[in-house]
Amino acid sequence: MNRKTTPIITLTLIFLSAGSLFSDCTEKAGKLIAQEDYSKAILILDTCKDNPESLKLLGVAFHGLYEMEQAQNYLEEYLEGSPEDLEANIVYASALAYNNDFRKAIRIYRKLYENNPDNAQIQKGLAKALGWNGRYREAMEIYNSLLQQDPQDIEVVFEIGRLLSWQKQFDAALLKLREIIDSNPEEEWLIRAMLEKATVMSWQKKFDESLAQYRAVLEMDSAVMEAYLGIGTVLEWQGKYKEAKSNFEQALIADPQSSAVKNRLEQLMWVK
């Protein structure tokens, strides 16, 4: 063999090996993300960050964990090289909305919608960003349009309920949430609807009914942080500070990383 060709062959083998490792890394991580095992996916992706596809998957995984600043950062880096990636743009716009950059999120969603007018995920993201930005009428128009296309879309019904509650249309909001609960949905949506219903009733100062609803959630799943947080909030409003603090402590056990729970506990440090 000509010795001058050896380095080229060796280098080629190295590149092929690296490519295979990257492919294996992203394939495994992609399967974990599909199973919503985001933390494990991130551990795998940390070993192959030089692969652009890994940046995208890291963004998606951190979004799944609601760690939106990291999601935004990874997706921004990925989109510099792949600006037309539809999935990455959708998740990126969502991360921006969660990070309260509503103007940019809405701009991206609108651009995506122009090119993909039949994509329900884009429409839902745009409506959510508009709602969070206080642009309720525009958001409601999109949700109503989606509901005409699919009256059984639980996510849309839920978001309409939330929008109504934010506008203090509490009775109308409760009707939408009961619609979900009465439809016997899968547990995830049942719990979300019950939590939202409990929150709306607490805003109506129906404290006993609100507490009963939160406790009904805990009977279904004793690890729901939002239920403990809601119970603690209602009890605090009633001046039952010791019981409130106990429930915030339970919420922190359910989700040790929750900054909202930590803040509530700090406010009740004086309670013994």
Structure overview:
This protein is mainly α and 272 residues long. The protein folds into three domains: 26-85, Alpha Horseshoe (Serine Threonine Protein Phosphatase 5, Tetratricopeptide repeat); 100-197, Serine Threonine Protein Phosphatase 5, Tetratricopeptide repeat, CATH 1.25.40; 206-272, Tetratricopeptide repeat domain (Serine Threonine Protein Phosphatase 5, Tetratricopeptide repeat). 78% of the residues lie in helices and 0% in strands. It has helices spanning 6-34, 38-45, 52-64, 68-81, 86-98, 102-115, 120-132, 136-149, 154-166, 170-182, 187-203, 207-220, 225-237, 241-254, 259-267. Helix 12 packs antiparallel against helix 13. It is globular and about 55 Å long.
CATH superfamily of the largest domain: Tetratricopeptide repeat domain
Return the string of H and E elements.
Answer: HHHHHHHHHHHHHHH
CATH hierarchy: architecture of the largest domain: Alpha Horseshoe
- How many strands? 0
Estimate what percentage of residues fall within beta strands. Answer: under 5%
The CATH topology of the largest domain is given as Serine Threonine Protein Phosphatase 5, Tetratricopeptide repeat
Largest sheet: none
Number of helices: 15
Number of domains: 3
Distance between the termini: 82 Å
> Radius of gyration, Cα only, in angstroms?
23 Å
Structural class: mainly alpha
Q: How would you describe the shape?
A: globular
Mean pLDDT: 91
The percent of residues in helical segments reads over 70%
Low-confidence stretches: 1-19
CATH hierarchy class name of the largest domain: Mainly Alpha
